[in-house]
Amino acid sequence: MIAPVLSLQAVRRSFGGIEVLHGADLELRAGEVHALIGENGAGKSTTMKILGGYLPPSSGQVKLDGAPVRFAGHRGAEAAGVVMIHQEFNLAEPLSVEENIFLGRELRRGPFLDKRAMRAEARRLLAELDCPLDPCRRVADLSVSDKQMVEIAKALGREARVLIMDEPTAVLTRRETAVLLGLVARLRDRGTAILFTSHKLDEVAQVADRVTVLRDGAVVAAGPAADMTEDEMARAMVGRELSDLFPPKPPAPGAETVLSVEGLDVEGLAGPASFSLCRGEVLALAGLVGAGRTELMEGMMGLRAATGRIEVAGQALPRLSPGAARAAGIAYLTEDRKGRGLLLEKPLAENLTLLALGRFGRPFLDKAAEARALDEAIGLYDIRLRDRRMAAGQLSGGNQQKLLLAKVMLAEPQVVVIDEPTRGIDIGTKQQIYGLIAVLAASGRSVIVVSSELPEVIGLAHRVLVMRRGAIAGALEGGEIGEEAILRLAMGLDEGGRAA
To answer: How far apart are CA 216 and CA 36, in angstroms?
Structure first.
């Protein structure tokens, strides 16, 4: 058996007297992809941060090439060839792509920066990812998926012996994901030891040689990936059967129109589009990434410059602005919960109530109201936390999503728009989010779900609008909703499979 390059032995980690990792063992070997999976809050991030030098263990040992090691922070780990790709972007937004890739290890010719060499190497690294980004572009102007590609290129440039990948495909398109998984296989074949975490178990089954499952801070299963089916992985993660991932769809909506959109045009990015939404309906927006789904919803919310007419319960919005949308009873959960949905450094209660103007009044001026709102959110949305005073950024991804949902629901909206509701969320929390969406519809609220996951669209929606190149290509409802029908509309194919 090949000796591990990097390993954990009986590692424990506590925060403020609360132990979150309970004697974990893990071995990473050269030329092997080791998948670490578990629900949000299971201890994956803590494990990766200990391996990457971001956190020291409270007890137990980290070993490098069989010898105990204590990294001097993440830079010490990188100097030893251990590099981590973060799920939360670790990029300097005002700087260019090439400046980010070489930040802290700039190439020089004498006393001067060798910008030509850095630009050429940045292009090479991006080409390996089949990513045609201009190295001179400012990172702040990039899409979420392009930022992820820059993070990966930055790590590749460090020529790691051990590469730790924290949800690297969570924000990538299908094409980008296929390219990345191909790169992972090539790196493995070159002898790199890879730790790969993903909530997408089909990816784990495709790329992993071995799997370790964490639940509640402890290793509950470990072994060759070939010996575990995706269902077995899921059961080990959550400790229960997940045969009913989607709840029964709420009863078919009535005829009452809650939202009417006419001629919505978003600066040439999407539209003009017209559609309606009934009370108690779950309406999905499907389509390929880049089809204009998010842009259309952001235009409706006044987050992008747009024109058109929007009515809520028969009353026209006086203008397309975030304030007018909120006042009319439309709430929006952004796909970028970390960058635009939550203030990660702020406490939970402050995040929850900062913009809420519902029954709690102006709660950011009232600490007692903040506490009541947080109590209600924890109970209703099953937000799991170790300390009420913790910052939102310290929550797991799934609990951040539930906090964001609780935040927008404080305003008691009639219409809830949820963009990519389960991106970067484990399968157990997905089941909870799906249940919450069904409860919202059953209670008489109307929901728009923007999703790139076809099973999610099919499992949740009463009706599906499929977008292509910024326009609504068609609508499906009831028994018409299926993967083939959605893809046919999304790709512009006729009944014979030819481009329409």
So the answer is: 14
Task: Pull the structure tokens for residue 231.
Answer: 């269902």
21 touches 43 (CB < 8 A): yes
458 token code pair: 């099919």
pLDDT class of 225 with cuts at 50, 70, 90: very high
Asked if residue 132 lies in contact with residue 126, where contact means CB atoms within 8 angstroms, the answer is yes
- The two tokens of residue 85 are 């790709």
Within 10 Å of residue 425's Cβ, how many Cβ atoms?
25
Instruction: Classify 115 as helix, strand or coil.
Output: helix
Instruction: Say if CB 228 and CB 211 are below 8 A apart.
Output: yes
Query: Residues 62-90: pLDDT tens digits?
Result: 999 999 999 988 889 988 999 998 876 77
User: pTM for the complete prediction?
Assistant: 0.61
Mean pLDDT of the chain: 85
Average pLDDT estimate for 210-222 = 91
pLDDT of residue 361: 44
Measured distance CA(219)–CA(238) in Å, rounded: 12
CA-CA distance, 116 to 430, in Å (whole number)?
A: 46
Q: Give CA separation, 60 vs 8, 72, 84, 194, 354, in Å.
A: 8, 17, 21, 22, 41
Characterize 456-484 residue by residue with b for buried, 16 or more Cβ atoms within 10 angstroms of its Cβ, and e for exposed: bbbbbbbbbbbbbebbbbbebeeeebeee
Residue type, position 139, single letter? V
Residues 166-177: tens digit of each pLDDT: 888 877 777 888
Tokens, residue 213: 């499952």
| pLDDT of 437 over the 80 cut | yes
Report yes or no: 87 and 397 within 8 Å, Cβ to Cβ: yes
- pLDDT value at position 364? 46
As a whole number of Å, the CA-based R_g of the chain is 24
- pLDDT for the residue 108: 87
Distances in Å between the Cα of 465 and the Cα atoms of 130, 143, 328 are 30, 23, 23
Strand partners, 222: 212
Nearest to 486 by CA among 253, 294, 285: 285
- Whether 9 contacts 26, CB under 8 Å: no
Kindly give the residue spans of alpha helices, DSSP state H, lying in 133-173.
144-156
The count of residues in the chain is: 500
Q: What is d(CA 126, CA 472) in angstroms, rounded to the nearest whole number? A: 33
Nearest to 89 by CA among 337, 291, 334: 337
Please, which residues have CB within 8 angstroms of residue 476's CB and are 6 or more apart in sequence? 463, 464, 466, 482, 485, 486, 489
Q: Cβ distance 201 to 37 under 8 Å?
A: yes
From CA 143, how far away is CA 304, in angstroms rounded? 15
